[in-house]
Amino acid sequence: MKNICFTFLVHQPYRLRNFHFFEIGNHYNYFDEETNAKIMRQIVEESYLPTNKLMLNLINTFGNKIKVSFAISGTALNQMEQYVPEVLGSFKELAATGNVEFLGQNYSTSLSSLKSESAFYEEVLEHKRLISRLFRKRPKVFLNTGLLYSDEIGKMISNLGFKGVITEGSSVILNGKSPNNLYKSTSRPPLILFLRNTSLSDDIALRFSQRNWSEWPLTSEKYLGWLNALPASDELVNLVMDYGTFGEHHKKESGIFDFLEFLFRHIAESKDLKLSTPVEVLKSVSAKAKLKVSKPISYTGTDKNASAWLKNEMQQEACDTLYAMEDLVKNTRDKFLHQDWERLKTADHFLYMNNFEEVLGNLFNPYENPYAAFLKYMNVLSDFQLKVEDKTKKSSKRKNTRSLIKNK
Amino acid sequence: MKILMLGWEYPPHISGGLATACQGLVESLLKKGHEVLFLLPKAVEEMQSERFRLISASNVELPKKKDSITYPLLRKLIPNVDPTQIHNLSGDKYNFSGAYGPNLIEEVYWLAVVISKLAKELEFDIIHAHDWLTFPAGIIAKEISRKPLVVHVHATAFDRSAKINHEIYEIERQGMLVADKVMAVSNLTKKIIIDKYHIDAKKVITTYNGVKQKDTSQNLDTSRFKEKIVTFLGRITYQKGPEYFIEAAEKVLKKDKNVRFVMAGNGDLMTEMIKIVAAKRLSSHFHFTGFLKGREVDRMLAMTDVFVMPSISEPFGIAPLEAIQANIPVIISRQSGVAEVLPHAFIVDYWDTNSLSEAIYGLLNHKSFAKMVKGLNRVALQNLTWGHAAETVSSTYQSVA
């Protein structure tokens, strides 16, 4: 039996407000509540709610034959709580069936795995707490921002107690090997590597409604045929895609919901295929070989590495400025500053500053061009810096006064 | 091909971008093997080389006898010039100022009188007239020689002032109507020609200017100020949007006193701008240099940290290209034709001084941002040569010859 692992990514950043440089120093709110709420509501209505409902119905009909996993970011969960709490209820319902696995992530979908080990650990633990509070689940398998992974990152994930990690089935690391098997990382103890099947995932996520695609229209029967045609030695197929694929990127009219429903029905009724979650696969499939990944890979951008976020000078300056503040922010022990800091780390901010040529996909990018993205971000960061400095000064003053009183 | 080119200025006689543009184009046309006879009202000195001749209209003797073809034509096309006056001048020369003074329109028509003689004497395959100033001359040259006429629109009456000069508008329209092809320096200008002059779109061809490749390695004085410098360089006229530059300066200075603003150039709005700056109490951080010539422009650019062109209506705009060459980050208005050839330039609407001031502040304070803007613009500039412009012009000639 081949395992078919569907992993759905649910993420929304806190988009910045049009923060003008006149406002630097005024310490106004940074985030565009109205737009963020609007986008969240739109995507919930068009995609998350109907797809969740579809999943629940399938689970009610087929029981344990329907299995999927979710990677929901902390910033998405918090925005759901804030703006559309009913969708959270629907995810909870899914969680309660026991047929759904939640993956570990870093809270803000940040680039901390590349920039700061300590920030990364904190974010992962914060996300873990959130998943536990909302869904009463303990993630065992990890999925990093944009599927970023390297041996180095693997070590950190392993240190945090995760058993496996999902990353891109990049040809750079596979060297002709199949992405449809499990592999081991170079860390000790080894982490199990789940590799995203790039083309089969993108057939649904990117190409489903492309009329100029030679395989259009894609039917569930055709897709099932592709899965069945895979060699017997392939033990699992990782299909990882944005949850917005269903109803948002591909609108309802494209037939995406029917495709998903019938694909799941076919697999549930199949003798050769079964839907599984990563933790189940860990129990039944063993890893083939070690995979060395010396440089970070990801599923984002044209080069499928970290360059989508950190290629140009603006991205680098913005990111370096942000991470240079880590200790200062921590030392303030201020809840609100900490919250801003988490939201400013979200990698989407850096993706918006990407070069003009890159195709960024469906991001709800609020900016006309990378320059505007950079300027807004730096305005906010300048203000944030001032806020942190103010707080630091105030608390050191307080300490001084306290020690003065003591000395008296 | 042998081209009779009609212009108003040619280096070293420069007052705006027109002379530079004419020279860039002529040099590249010569390189392509064309011959150019360039007539202008007044040349400092006439030049002649193997395939290039600069003719000063001030040196051309007007016909001695009444000529049965020319005189009725002149009367019909340029009724503004009194034929008896022409008659009186017979065998004499008209002394052009070649400037843009109060006699401008009169000189424009006298250039047509001069060409009525030259068009019969000179040999050429095509007529190429730059801007309305030479359109009456171009029309006459075409009528007499029966050679095709191409008019080149570097600016229209709509770019010059808020109030349209109807006489000039009519001269422009006549030139475009009679011409076999109309070249526009940007799609922005092309659109004006189609919408406001009602010229057949098929006749109008966008022909972007080039920029002369320059050696930027030479060491020029750098700034003597410790503050950063933001520069406006161009004529201080309505179309260039100088008051928006001042408004942006005021906003930047509220946040950052470590900046000086320079308005380089002169124009009819200069005194008004000086008054505005004084009224806003910005004079200690805002400077006017007056008109700058060749090397002074280079020195000004060498001192500049950010270059701004907030034009309200700019058919093309060569100045920002020179700034890019000097490795300066530029901000240009969306209402500038040059924005069409700089896909990664920082662009703002001229009236949006909030965005403009923010961009100035950003470029002054974030190295990475300035570096990106400079780098991406320089890449775009590499494709923007007079060679490319000359190619478009050559094929336009071929299409009508």
UniProtKB/TrEMBL annotation, chain A:
<dbReference type="InterPro" id="IPR004300">
    <property type="entry name" value="Glyco_hydro_57_N"/>
</dbReference>
<dbReference type="Pfam" id="PF03065">
    <property type="entry name" value="Glyco_hydro_57"/>
</dbReference>
<dbReference type="InterPro" id="IPR052046">
    <property type="entry name" value="GH57_Enzymes"/>
</dbReference>
<dbReference type="GO" id="GO:0003824">
    <property type="term" value="F:catalytic activity"/>
</dbReference>
<protein>
    <submittedName>
        <fullName>Alpha-amylase</fullName>
    </submittedName>
</protein>
<feature type="domain" description="Glycoside hydrolase family 57 N-terminal">
    <location>
        <begin position="6"/>
        <end position="290"/>
    </location>
</feature>
<keyword id="KW-0119">Carbohydrate metabolism</keyword>
<comment type="similarity">
    <text>Belongs to the glycosyl hydrolase 57 family.</text>
</comment>
<dbReference type="InterPro" id="IPR011330">
    <property type="entry name" value="Glyco_hydro/deAcase_b/a-brl"/>
</dbReference>
<dbReference type="GO" id="GO:0005975">
    <property type="term" value="P:carbohydrate metabolic process"/>
</dbReference>
TrEMBL record, chain B:
<keyword id="KW-0328">Glycosyltransferase</keyword>
<dbReference type="Pfam" id="PF08323">
    <property type="entry name" value="Glyco_transf_5"/>
</dbReference>
<keyword id="KW-0808">Transferase</keyword>
<dbReference type="InterPro" id="IPR013534">
    <property type="entry name" value="Starch_synth_cat_dom"/>
</dbReference>
<feature type="domain" description="Glycosyl transferase family 1">
    <location>
        <begin position="226"/>
        <end position="369"/>
    </location>
</feature>
<feature type="domain" description="Starch synthase catalytic">
    <location>
        <begin position="2"/>
        <end position="195"/>
    </location>
</feature>
<dbReference type="GO" id="GO:0009011">
    <property type="term" value="F:alpha-1,4-glucan glucosyltransferase (ADP-glucose donor) activity"/>
</dbReference>
<dbReference type="InterPro" id="IPR001296">
    <property type="entry name" value="Glyco_trans_1"/>
</dbReference>
<dbReference type="Pfam" id="PF00534">
    <property type="entry name" value="Glycos_transf_1"/>
</dbReference>
<dbReference type="InterPro" id="IPR050194">
    <property type="entry name" value="Glycosyltransferase_grp1"/>
</dbReference>
<protein>
    <recommendedName>
        <fullName>starch synthase</fullName>
        <ecNumber>2.4.1.21</ecNumber>
    </recommendedName>
</protein>
